Amino acid sequence: MTLALLEVDNLCVELPTVRGPLRALAGVSLRLERGRSLGVVGESGSGKTMLSRAILQLLPPRAKVSGSTRFDGKTLQALAPEALRALRGKEIAVVFQDPMTSLNPVLTIGSQIVETLLEHLGLAASAARLRAVELLASVGIPEPERRAGQYPHQLSGGMRQRVAIAIALSCEPRLLLADEPTTALDVTVQAQILDLLARERSRRNMAMMLITHDLGIVAGRTDAVIVMYAGRVMERAATRVLFKQMRHPYTEALLAAIPKVEDAPHTPLAAIGGTPPDPTRPAPGCPFAPRCRYGRDDCREAMPGLAGLGDHQFACWHPLAQRPLPWRRDGR
Amino acid sequence: MAAAEMTGVTDAPRRARRRSLGWVFWLAVVWIGVVLFGALAANLLPLEDPSKISLLARRQGPSALHLFGTDHLGRDVLSRVVYGSRASLAVGLISAFLALLAGGTLGLLAGYFRGRLESLTMAAMDVLLAFPPLVLALAIIAYLGQDMVNLTLTLALLSVPASTRVARASTLAIAEREFVVAARALGASHLRVMLRELLPNVVLPLLVYTLILVAVLIVGEGVLSFLGLGVPPPMASWGSMMSEGREQLDVAPHIAFIPAIVMFLTVLSFNLVGDTLRSMTDPRRAAL
C-alpha cells in the first residue's frame, strides 16, 4: 500500500461537560489518498465536525484525544505548535459551513485573502494583492478588483462561500476539508459551489474531505463515502458501491429521508424516528439499535465491529441483504 | 434567518430616532469642540490671568469687563472656567484612555484565552469593584499626595474593571464566531487572531463605552476637587470652582453655578455623543 495523504487511526475524542465526559468520536479510522475525495455523511451530532477539528488539531484544549492522525507521514499530535501553524492553511485548508460567520465582518475580502498569502507564501504585498484578485476571479466572482475592496456583508451568501473557498485554495493546499460547505446556501447555489469545489479539486489534484448530512451531495462527487453515527463509522465503501448496495440500515434510512422529486405531493417524509443517543451516556451495543427498523435484542448487547469484504465495510449485526435498492437501480 | 428579521424590525425605529437626534448630536459635538478648543488655546485667547486676585472687584455679577463675573477673590470666572476645563478634560480624557488601554488588553486576553487567566482577571476586577470607589480614591490620593498625575492614575484604576468587563463581553461574543476558528485553521497565531480578528470587532463598542466613561470621570474629577482632593489650588478646575463658590451661594450664586452649568453641558454632550454612536454601532453588530 502506498503512503496515504491522510491517515486517521482509531481516533477517540472525549470532551468534559457538566454532565460527564462526552464521547464525540469513538474510534474513527480512515484513509484518504492523494488527489482523492472522501464524503463523510451523518446527521447532526454524529461527530463529523469534531472529526475535521481533530484533523486540524483545533479541538478545545480540555478535550481528551487518543489515536493518531497522520498527514503525509507526519503525526499531527506530535508536531510543535509552530509546525502545525505552518501546516494549517498551507497544506490543509478548510471551508466552513456558514459563510456568514466564517469571514471577518470588519476586514475587506481582499485583505482576508492577502493575509493568508503573506503568512504562508511570503509574497510581497503588491504581488499578494494581484494574486488575491486572480483567486477571486478563479472561483467565479465577477468584477474581482471591485469585490476585493468590499466587506463580507456586501456579498450574497453564495459569493461569500466562493470567497471562503478562494481563501482556502489560496496556498494550493493538498487537503481541503469542506465542512458542510453548502448547508447554509440556497439549493440553486449549492450545485454551483459543489461543482466549483469538484472542478478546483481535479484541477489542483487536491484531496478533499466533503462533510455533509446529505447523502445526495456526496453521490456524484466523491470517490468513497464514510457514514458516521454517534462518533463511529457505520459504513464505508466506494461511492458507487455504497449507492448500489448499502449494507447498513442507517445508510438506508438516511437515503430514504431524502425527499424524492418523483414522489406524489404530500408524501410524508421518511424521517428517522427518535433522536441520536446521548453521547454522555453511552449504552452498550449498537448506538443506532433503538431507532433501527431491523433492530433486535442482540443489537443492544454488543457493538458490532467494522467488517466486510475489501473496501466495503459496515458495523452491523444484521446487515441488509445484497440486493439493488428498489428505488435507485443505477446508483444515481 | 431570524437575525435578518430581527434587524429588519428594529432598524426602522432606530433609523428614525437617529434622524430626530441629528441636530442634538451635532450640538453636542459642537459644544465638545468649543470646550476642547478653549482648553487647548486658553493661552492664546484674550483672557485675564485666572489667578489674578483683585479684592476690589469681588463677587461681581456678569458685566462687559467680566462676562461671567468674578469670584470671592475677584478672579475672572470666565477665565477660570476656560483654564479649569484643562484640568477637568485632561484628567477625564487621559484616565479614560488609560482605562481603555488596560481594561481592553485584560478583557481581550481574558475573553480569548478563557480558563484560569480569565478567572484570575475577573476575580481581581471584582475585588476592585467591591471597594467603595470614593473611599478608595480618597485613600490613594491622601497617601500618594495631591497632584494631577495621581488623580488621573487613581481615576483610571477605578475605571479599569468596567472597561475590562466590556472588552471581555465583546470578545466572548466574537470569539465564538466561526471566523476566529477559520483564522486558526488557516494558520494564524494567537497574537494575530487577537490583533487582526478580534480587536477590530471589539474596539468599536469599547471606544463608545470610553466616551461615556469620559463623562463619568469628568464628574469624578469634579467630586474629588469639590472635596478638596482634586487639582491643587490655585489651579482652577470645575469641581474646585464649585467648591469655592459654595460659600457664596446666597450672595453670588453665579460663582458656583457657571462652572456647574459648563460641566453639566460637557458631561451631557459626551453622553449624548457616546449614546448616539452606540446605537449606530448596534444594528451593524446585530447584522454580523
Distance between the termini of chain B: 12 Å
- Number of separate strands of chain B: 0
What order do the SSEs of chain B take from the amino end to the carboxyl end, as H and E?
A: HHHHHHHHH
Named CATH topology of chain B: MetI-like fold
Strand content of chain A: 15-25%
Sum up the overall morphology of chain B in one term.
Answer: elongated
Assembly state (oligomeric): heterodimer
Q: Which two chains share the most extensive interface?
A: A-B, 30 and 20 residues
Q: Briefly, what CATH class of chain B?
A: Mainly Alpha
What Rg of chain B do the Cα atoms give?
A: 23 Å
Outline of chain A: globular
> Please, what is the CATH homologous superfamily of chain B?
MetI-like
Mean pLDDT of chain B: 81
Helix content of chain A: 25-40%
Number of strands of chain A: 11
**CATH arch. level architecture of chain B:** Orthogonal Bundle
Biggest β-sheet of chain A, characterized? 7 strands, mixed
Count of alpha and pi helical runs of chain A: 10
Distance between the termini of chain A: 30 Å
As for the number of domains of chain B, it is: 1
Radius of gyration of chain A: 21 Å
